[in-house]
Amino acid sequence: MTDPATKRRHAKLLVLDLDETLIHARARGEAELPWPPQRQVAHFRVYLRPGVREFMNAALDRFVAVGVWTSATTDYATAMLERIVDRRRLRFIYCRERCTQRRDVDLDETYWIKDIRKLDGFGFDKHQILVVDDKPRGLERSYGNLVRIPPFEGDPEDRTLARLGPYLDQLGAVEDVRAVEKRGWWLRDDEDDV
Ligand SMILES: [Mg+2]
């Protein structure tokens, strides 16, 4: 992403998931990973996705509004975000109580939905909202707004965020983000257009 002083901000709302998108955390008792964590937060070993601070700062410079939406609890999200961003710059932090629980009867499991109608109050049309998330099911009501990201599970060689920044810049410039085919964006060559 380029210097905000030399380029206007994208008039879009960028919404970021937390777990496996920006960080990976393991509670006490969960299996050890081959890599050491960067942080210890309460009883969590926390792995920061490589480049996450730079990514957050660039996103905040390039989009008029950036929020975080996670199905985790507020205490957890607050503690984790403290490690990666100046929280005062975020437009909002939405946690579990802003998610809707759904049940998949075939798989006999529950999951969380992020219903983007809950973002209506921020003054963006649906074609101006981008949601970065590793779990597409959570956006099943608004796939067109989803920028899926491969889940991060602690790998220090992960370079996804370095590619996501420029890709979001491309999406920030289009009229209607829902009209763009975004699936598998991380598999494309760098020179490919949106
Ligand atoms: Mg996630």
Automatic annotation (TrEMBL):
UniProt superkingdom: Bacteria
InterPro entries in the record: FCP1_dom (IPR004274), HAD-like_sf (IPR036412), HAD_sf (IPR023214), TIM50 (IPR050365)
Domain FCP1 homology, residue spans: 7-171
Pfam families in the cross-refs: NIF
SMART domains reported in the protein's UniProt record: CPDc (SM00577)
Protein known as: NLI interacting factor-like phosphatase
